[in-house]
Design brief:
The protein is an all-alpha fold. It has five helices and no strands.
Length: 159
């Protein structure tokens, strides 16, 4: 039994349609619902950026990406240190002081990362008009309050 060119074309067409439908659904989900990995949740800063005009929104997203790359080493290191500290609880030679010291170091790295992002956001705001800054900070507050409310309710998006 050999396949005719028409049969091959039919199979290729079906596979291509399935691929395109899957791609379209993925694009819709990411665009309309947010990032599926984070449960559709955006950071309060990214959500607040939606209050900016297109040019400022693009510049803000570029700044956040740049900062994300700049702090990547600190956040990865903090996660590794924290994971190691929690894993040490199961060790036979568990040292509470060492675990606390590791957790403190991880917190320091997280604070350093947060400081860098917050400083960059303040520097970005210098280029906004007073009205744009007011609109932006109101959007930050709204987005942050929604995230805090989700967390308080135990909503899965808050994790």
């Amino acid at each position: 039994m050999s396949l005719r060119p028409r049969d091959i074309a039919l199979v290729v067409s079906i596979l291509m349609n399935v691929f395109l439908i899957g791609a379209a659904v993925t694009i819709y989900i990411v665009h309309e619902k947010g990032d599926p990995i984070s449960g559709g949740r955006r950071s309060s800063m990214r959500a607040a950026a939606m209050s900016l005009d297109e040019a400022h929104r693009t510049a803000f997203a570029r700044m956040l990406r740049s900062q994300g790359k700049a702090i990547q080493a600190e956040t990865r290191s903090a996660k590794a240190i924290r994971d190691d500290a929690w894993a040490s609880l199961a060790a036979d030679n568990f040292d509470p002081a060492d675990a606390k010291q590791k957790l403190a170091r991880a917190r320091e790295l997280n604070v350093t990362a947060h400081r860098a992002i917050e400083d960059a956001v303040v520097d970005f705001a210098v280029g906004l008009t007073p009205a744009q800054r007011a609109s932006f900070i109101n959007a930050v507050r709204r987005a942050a309050s929604h995230q805090h409310a989700d967390f308080a309710k135990g909503h899965p998006r808050a994790r």
